[in-house]
Write a structure and sequence with these properties.
alpha+beta, four-stranded antiparallel sheet
Amino acid sequence: MLIALIARDKPAALQTRLDTRDAHVEYLKETGVVSQAGPLLDDAGQMIGSLVILDVADMQAAQDWAAGDPYATAGLFANVELIPWKKVI
């Protein structure tokens, strides 16, 4: 099951993102369920959120993954959405 995780950072949280980035990227790699991932950007090209496509068994697995993300545990996100996604292209 593919799940799109769309997360928006809290205002003025860029330093939290930068401080936690290495641990987050390692988590993306080591968990084995990330199909695609990258930051959301503002008009100036600054990172303001995340888009992660998870390939997991069910929504509970996606919720568990999201809860364990170092960005989440660092309190980076203002909100997180988990939405079932269908790949077309």
